[in-house]
Design brief:
The mean pLDDT is 96. Strands 6-5-4-7-10-14-15 form a seven-stranded mixed sheet, sandwiched between helices. A three-stranded antiparallel sheet has the order 1-2-3, covered by helices on one side. A three-stranded antiparallel sheet has the order 8-9-13, covered by helices on one side. With 326 residues, the chain is an alpha/beta fold. Helix content is 38%, strand content 17%. It is globular. It starts with a strand and ends in a 5-residue tail after the last strand. It is built from eleven helices and 15 strands.
Length: 326
């Protein structure tokens, strides 16, 4: 399994996902600021993974005391606004040290960071079993996925891709279609990289081909991850997810969301309460430093929100939830 992190002594090494699949570059992080920068610039991405990274960022800051930990927490939470796992992990680290004396804060925070990572691995495995259980025995399935919700996004076997990998292991997977996922091509660069590494049959398509694949009858289910889920089950995920959900609805194809419980936001009543991150126009106007469009106005939201009535089921590590139609 490919991991987005490695730890040597007190240094967290982050696999720079901006450089994939061309080369494996590891970024050494020894401060919360360096971790926050890696999160903001998408060197590490994926809601659960940035939560894990932020937890270790907290542990680095805790070496300098409670006050520095609090300052670092604010910096880390602001790194990316949409993925709730980020603020969840940071607040969990803060809560973990409430009852400890100052000299024990570093150890307690580091222990909490490791616990968050370990729990994510177990969560992925449980989610994968529950998700694969939705697919009947005795036949194989072709699924479509968007962005990257695998090992590099979670630190475990993955959320959506964890289910895909389990289906493959159970002999129930025929093929995976992967959206490129514009504008940063996380599907083409990272999901394709992961599935090729795992020897799982997969086919890369552009985002605009998804509807035609469904029309042809080539897609049995859509499985995606999530960055934030509201109380009514409206779900934020990588831009383009909403379009897939609408297409799946029209073609009577199950649309599954796979996400850990930490992705649920109790403070968001509906999708309208979810803050959508807007990123630099340069991500659309250029790629890897090369211009691919003239200097025009750009709208670049990183996420969209899928209404709960378009979601067949939300697969968590605890249960499969069927959103209410009303």
């Amino acid at each position: 399994m490919i991991s987005p992190f490695s730890i040597e002594g007190t240094t967290l090494h982050i696999l720079d996902q901006r450089e994939l699949p061309g080369q494996s570059v590891w970024i050494p992080c020894n401060s919360a600021g360096e971790v926050a920068d890696a999160i903001k610039t998408l060197a590490v991405r994926g809601a659960p993974a940035i939560g894990i990274a932020a937890a270790f960022g907290c542990a680095m800051a805790a070496r300098s005391g409670r006050e520095e930990l609090q300052k670092a927490a604010e910096i880390l939470i602001q790194a990316r606004p949409t993925a709730v796992n980020l603020s969840w992990a940071v607040r969990r680290c803060l809560d973990a040290v409430n009852d400890y004396p100052d000299d024990q804060i570093p150890e307690a925070t580091l222990r909490e960071a490791y616990d968050i990572w370990d729990e994510e691995r177990l969560s992925n495995e449980s989610m994968a079993r529950l998700g694969a259980g939705l697919f009947s025995e005795g036949r194989t399935y072709t699924v479509l996925t968007h962005c990257n919700a695998g090992s590099l996004a979670t630190g475990g076997i993955g959320t959506a891709l964890g289910i895909v990998k389990t289906l493959h292991g159970q002999g129930k997977l025929e093929n995976v279609y992967m959206d490129e996922t514009r504008p940063l091509l996380q599907g083409a660069r990272i999901t394709a990289y992961e599935l090729k590494h795992a020897n799982i049959p997969s086919t890369l398509v552009t985002d605009s081909m998804a509807g035609w694949l469904m029309k042809l009858g080539w897609i049995d289910a859509v499985i995606v991850g999530a960055d934030r889920i509201a109380k009514n089950y409206d779900t934020a995920n990588k831009i383009g997810t909403y379009s897939l959900a609408v297409l799946a609805k029209v073609h009577n194809i199950p649309f599954y969301v796979a996400a850990p419980a930490s992705t649920f936001d109790p403070d968001a009543s509906t999708g309208e309460d979810i803050v959508i991150e807007e990123r630099s126009p340069s991500e659309v106007l250029s790629f890897h430093g090369k211009a691919c469009a003239p200097a025009v106005e750009v709208f670049n939201p990183a996420f969209d929100v899928t209404d709960h009535h378009l979601i067949t089921a939300i697969i968590t590590e605890k249960e499969v939830i069927y959103p209410p139609k009303e």
